[in-house]
Write a structure and sequence with these properties.
The protein is α/β, with parallel strands linked by helices. The chain has one domain: Alanine racemase (TIM Barrel, Alpha-Beta Barrel), CATH 3.20.20.10. Helix content is about 40%, strand content about 20%. It is built from eight helices and eight strands. Helix 5 links the parallel strand 4 and strand 5.
Length: about 220
C-alpha cells in the first residue's frame, strides 16, 4: 500500500466516525511537508502545529502548492512569539489561548493580521499543574469579553485536554469534556454567543465525539 493509499484509508475511516458538527484537525507536528501535501491532495485542509517556528517553515514551504490550507496553532504560545505567528500565511486558528495576558498581547498585535482569526480559549479541566489554561470562570469570561470587541480575533470556542495522570483514563476524559461543555454553555448564555469545543486527541477522540466536540485533534494515529 502506498503512503497516499494508507492516508486515504485513515481519512475515510475517521470521516465515517465524525457526526454532523464535528471536524477533523490533523496534527502535523514533526511530520514532513510531503506528508502534509499528501493529505491536502486527499481533500484535507486543516493542520495543527505546536511550535511557531515549525509552523512558519511549513506554511512558507506549502504556501503556493496548498493555497486553501488552514493552519491551526495548538501548542503553548508565548507572548513573545505572537508577532511572528501573526505573519504566517494561511493561519486560521489558535486553540491554546491560555490566560488574560496572552489575550491582551493578541489584541495589541492584531493589526499585523490581514484576515480574521479563530480563537479558542484553553480551559484546564484536569487541573494538572503541567497544563496551561484558564481555571477560573471569571477570568475566562473576562477574556471572552475582550475578544468580542475585536475586529480581527473571533471568539470561536473553548479547548481542553483530558487528564493524563490517572488510572481511569476514559472516565477522566469524559469528565473533562463534560465539564468543558458546561463551561461553554454558561459562557454562551452569559455572553449570547455560539461557541464550539476543541477536545479529543488520538487516545480519547471517540469519547470527545460522544460529547459533541467541534474539533478533534488527531496526530499519531493518522500517520502510522
Amino acid at each position: 500500500m502506498t503512503q497516499k493509499e494508507l492516508f486515504a484509508k485513515k481519512l475515510s475511516e475517521i470521516k465515517a466516525q465524525l457526526p454532523e458538527g464535528s471536524s477533523l484537525l490533523v496534527v502535523s507536528k514533526t511530520r514532513s511537508v510531503e506528508e502534509i501535501k499528501t493529505y491536502y491532495e486527499l481533500g484535507l485542509r486543516d493542520f495543527g502545529e505546536n511550535r511557531v517556528q515549525e509552523l512558519s517553515d511549513k506554511a512558507q514551504a506549502l504556501q503556493d502548492e496548498c493555497p486553501e490550507i488552514r493552519w491551526h496553532m495548538i501548542g503553548h504560545l508565548q507572548t513573545n512569539k505572537v508577532n511572528a505567528l501573526f505573519k504566517i500565511p494561511h493561519l486560521y486558528a489558535i486553540h491554546s489561548v491560555h490566560d488574560l495576558n496572552l489575550v491582551q498581547k493578541l489584541l495589541k498585535s492584531q493589526d499585523l493580521l490581514d484576515h480574521s482569526l479563530q480563537i479558542f480559549l484553553q480551559f484546564n479541566t484536569s487541573k494538572e499543574e503541567e497544563k496551561s489554561g484558564f481555571e477560573d470562570y471569571a477570568d475566562l469570561s473576562a477574556a471572552a469579553e475582550l475578544l468580542l470587541s475585536s475586529p480581527k480575533l473571533n471568539l470561536a470556542g473553548l479547548m481542553t485536554m483530558g487528564t493524563l495522570r490517572t488510572e481511569n483514563f476514559e472516565g477522566e476524559a469524559a469528565r473533562c469534556f463534560q465539564e468543558l461543555n458546561k463551561v461553554k454553555e454558561k459562557l454562551q448564555d452569559n455572553l449570547q454567543v455560539n461557541l464550539k469545543t476543541s477536545m479529543g486527541m488520538s487516545q480519547d477522540y471517540k469519547i470527545a465525539l460522544q460529547e459533541k466536540s467541534g474539533w478533534v485533534r488527531l496526530g499519531t494515529m493518522m500517520f502510522v
